[in-house]
Design a protein that fits this description.
This protein is globular. Helix 9 (166-194) crosses helix 12 and helix 10 (199-207) runs antiparallel to helix 11. The chain has helices spanning 13-22, 38-43, 51-55, 68-75, 81-84, 99-110, 124-130, 141-151, 166-194, 199-207, 214-225, 234-251, 256-270, 281-288; strands spanning 3-7, 26-30, 46-47, 60-63, 90-93, 115-118, 121-122, 133-138, 155-162. It is of the alpha/beta class. The longest helix is centred in the middle third of the chain and has 29 residues, at 166-194. It starts with a strand and ends in a 6-residue tail after the last helix.
Length: 294
Amino acid sequence: MAKIGFIGLGIMGSPMAINLVRAGHTVTGWNRSPEKTAPLVEAGGSAAATIADAVRDADVVITMVPASPEVEAVAYGPDGILENVRPGALLIDHSSITPQTSVDLAENARDHGVRVLDAPVSGGEAGAVEGVLSIMVGGDKADFDAAKPVLEAMGTTIVHCGPHGSGQTVKAANQLIVAVNLEACAEAVTFLEKSGVDLKAALEVLNGGLAGSAVLTRKMENFLLHEYRPGFKVDLHHKDMGIVTEAARNVGAVLPVGAVAAQLIASARAQGWGDNDHSVLLKGVQRLSGDADA
């Protein structure tokens, strides 16, 4: 069992930290909004007033924050992780950020004697709550092996993808697939509804065949009820599509369908739906199809 400092207790981070407590780890959490530490404390963890307090005695530090600037903000500087964690600690970053940010973090951490893994996750809020996340990991294999007992408290598919930055590259590909799949589902739902078909029956049979997917399984209720409580926000998927677009450009990969999906997510954000679940792409398709009240 490890002493863990957990930085970032939002929609994903909070249930992940709670699952670590349930697995027997000692977890001290910090969040920019202190009230968000309450569920962790209720589960048996503890709250820290500062990042330094959260990480000072930790064997493992976990970060789960929105984007590259937030990772840099919590990692660097006199009040950040690297200046306050003990040498030899392992820093696992579950945030979805650019591969280069992960590479830079690993290089800077090495100067402090800190080991780093980039370990972004997939599975959304439900996967975090259920402890069944898919975790794609970049970094040294020995550090990955050492981290497995911690990662297994949060996920069920845990794969070492290569050196630093590899986890983030795979996560970018994941977000590309999810975006295209969401848009395909949104278009299919709109088509089915306008055709007068029993939508629930149609989605159930589709999900049992080749058209089935984790996206359709996880988002089926959103599509049926036209409710978009955030499990994964449009704002975050918009950020991730920027990452995959830039990374693809850097390696010379052409993503024509991905580019369209990125623009549709950008359109959802421009409509003011940034805090909605990304399944709100359905509303965008409905409006394009003439439903002004969607």
